[in-house]
């Protein structure tokens, strides 16, 4: 599941050294007029603003990524590169100042320059500094329309709130400098990464929210609203920013299609397909080899394989199962790239619901609750799950041994070896029984939440249930098709779902383990962990970041937070005629190098 981590996103790894390289697609070697590539995907696009809680989904990110230039992007080796939008530079360490400079040829598709106003709006929206309420959602968890006295931007970030002062903007608006109120480890990827670019076009927000009659008037009104903390204007701005860019078919309002990158949307049939074509008005350096990319939607992975076989789809990345792999292998003229994607599966335990893992159930006895948590975790058949369900798809697959480090992170092995997770390498039913006996807890009932429409998760649940009940637990099936809406509601004791990576930033874990944080569904709180998270936010020393990451990981294992299981296997399936296909363990997965795609 990709929540607002985003998002979500994600888990943390050590920041990688930035490599100097030319912007993507800088070659003039194009495939020629009329080249078309059909891409299969499992979920339909629904919003151009993937920075909102609802819009922050891979289905949106992959489209926005191809339509908008960015300051930074990751390759398939998780190396960070300069994008086509401009440059990011740290100009001061004390205080931390970060300067964004837009390229002179960076323009929105309507000819309006992409500039500091767009980025200033992104900061204002993601910082929560201008919100007058902590949340403004309806009973279903969806953002509501703000009234005239309410400002609520439906977005969150770790670093943006640390910027308290209005940024320094150059006279031509082609540069912007943020001053942080304290050091921040991930300053380089806080803005402008991936699909975000500079954010949604500020002048379009002003036109639709404030009635601005020109781009210049719109940009000026956005700046004045932010500078003056104008609640009335910001209320209207946040309303449109939150939901104004949402659409599920070709919109009547063409403003919603304004973009800064090489592709434009030319057709969109709800739930069926979305077509991108080269925008001849594009002024940036990205030179994709395909003239047209049509993304075709179908949530059934076997239907996607059938589409590959029929020649209706050239490349796809469906949910991988043994049946999908076998079906793809039986097709002539098709290549399969096995690997791992951006999501990893994990089991979390609930600390604050008066259930078997909550100290409140034992009169506040922390040690007793900890023993019960550790007992349950000792029964998780992690290796069996991987051997039976994942290795048939990727024979190199292994159990994931870290919450906060991706398996291909340079710190993964060292941090996993020091965390104590090796105590859970094998199922230990007798050890679990002993812990329950020592705690004086008999046959504790564990309500287990998972997506019961997902065949693989149904199989995982059955394996967990069978193993845990051997140790004396009673595992109750709380599977639910609407499992995502129940996260954090206290109606379950253990949960099975996935977290998706969007960055290698070291501060991404903050939202998972801090009390009250948006992605902390477990009610987990440890003052020691919170202190380490505080230190992680401000650390700019790689060695200190490494130590803190190791400390946090070990504390999670010591506290019985839960256990990671495996990295999602991925199958990138494509016709042999498609060249330069690859994938990455970060969102936007196989789309990361769309400009290099070719079709013979």
UniProtKB/TrEMBL annotation:
Signal peptide residues on this chain, from the entry's feature table: 1-20
Record bears the keyword Signal: yes
UniProt cross-references to InterPro entries, sorted A to Z: Peptide/Ni-bd, SBP_5, SBP_5_dom
Keywords on record: Signal
CDD domains reported in the protein's UniProt record: PBP2_Lpqw
MF terms in GO: peptide transmembrane transporter activity
Gene Ontology BP annotations: peptide transport
GO cellular component, as recorded: ATP-binding cassette (ABC) transporter complex; periplasmic space
Gene3D superfamilies reported for this sequence: Dipeptide-binding Protein, Domain 3, Periplasmic binding protein-like II
Domain (Solute-binding protein family): residue spans on this chain: 89-504
Name assigned to this protein: ABC transporter family substrate-binding protein
Organism of derivation: Brevibacterium aurantiacum
């Amino acid at each position: 599941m990709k929540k607002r981590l985003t998002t979500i996103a994600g888990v943390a790894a050590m920041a990688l050294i930035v490599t100097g390289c030319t912007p993507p697609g800088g070659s003039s070697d194009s495939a020629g007029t009329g080249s078309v590539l059909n891409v299969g995907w499992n979920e339909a696009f629904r919003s151009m603003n993937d920075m909102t809680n609802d819009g922050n989904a891979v289905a949106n990110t992959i489209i926005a990524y191809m339509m908008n230039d960015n300051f930074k992007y990751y390759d398939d080796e998780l190396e960070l590169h300069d994008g086509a939008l401009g440059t990011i530079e740290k100009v001061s360490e004390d205080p931390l100042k970060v300067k964004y400079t837009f390229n002179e040829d960076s323009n929105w598709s309507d000819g309006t320059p992409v500039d500091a106003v767009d980025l200033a709006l992104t900061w204002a929206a993601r910082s929560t500094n201008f919100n007058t309420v902590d949340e403004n959602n309806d009973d279903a968890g969806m953002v509501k329309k703000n009234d005239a006295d309410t400002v609520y931007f439906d977005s969150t970030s770790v670093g943006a709130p640390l910027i308290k002062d209005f940024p320094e903007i150059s006279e031509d608006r082609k540069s912007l400098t943020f001053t942080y109120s304290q050091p921040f480890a991930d300053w380089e990827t806080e803005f402008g990464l991936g699909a975000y670019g500079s954010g949604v076009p500020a002048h379009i927000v002003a036109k639709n929210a404030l009635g601005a009659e020109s781009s210049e008037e719109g940009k000026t009104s956005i700046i004045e609203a932010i500078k003056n903390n104008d609640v009335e204007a910001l209320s209207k701005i946040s309303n449109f920013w939150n939901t104004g860019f949402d659409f599920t078919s070709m919109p009547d309002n063409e403003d919603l299609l304004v973009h800064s990158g090489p592709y434009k949307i030319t057709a969109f049939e709800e739930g069926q397909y979305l077509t991108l074509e080269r925008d001849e008005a594009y002024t940036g350096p990205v030179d994709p080899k395909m003239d047209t990319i049509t993304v075709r939607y179908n949530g059934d992975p076997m239907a996607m394989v059938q589409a590959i076989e029929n020649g209706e789809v050239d490349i796809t990345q469906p949910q991988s199962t043994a049946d999908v792999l076998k079906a793809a292998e039986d097709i002539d003229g098709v290549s399969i790239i096995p690997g791992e994607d951006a999501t990893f599966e994990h089991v979390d335990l609930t600390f604050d619901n008066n259930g078997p893992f909550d100290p409140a159930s034992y009169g506040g006895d922390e040690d007793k609750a900890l023993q019960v948590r550790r007992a349950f975790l000792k029964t998780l058949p992690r290796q069996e799950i991987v051997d039976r369900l994942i290795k048939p798809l990727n024979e190199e697959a292994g159990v994931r041994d870290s919450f906060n480090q991706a398996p291909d992170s340079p710190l993964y092995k060292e941090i996993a070896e020091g965390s104590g997770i090796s105590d859970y390498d094998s199922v230990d039913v007798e050890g679990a029984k002993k812990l329950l006996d020592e705690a004086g807890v008999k046959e504790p009932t564990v309500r287990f939440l998972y997506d019961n429409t997902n065949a693989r998760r149904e199989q995982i649940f059955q394996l967990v249930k069978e193993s845990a009940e051997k140790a004396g637990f009673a595992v109750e099936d709380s599977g639910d098709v609407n499992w995502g809406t129940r996260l954090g509601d206290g109606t379950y004791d253990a949960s099975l779902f996935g977290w998706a990576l969007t960055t290698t930033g070291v501060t991404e874990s903050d939202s998972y383990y801090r009390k009250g944080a948006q992605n902390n569904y477990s009610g987990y709180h440890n003052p020691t962990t919170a202190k380490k998270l505080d230190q992680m936010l401000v650390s700019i020393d790689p060695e200190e970041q490494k130590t803190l990451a190791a400390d946090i990981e070990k504390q999670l294992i010591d506290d019985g937070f839960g256990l990671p299981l495996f990295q999602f296997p991925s199958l990138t399936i494509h016709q042999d005629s498609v060249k330069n296909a690859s994938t990455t363990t970060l969102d936007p997965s196989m789309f990361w190098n769309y400009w290099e795609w070719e079709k013979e």
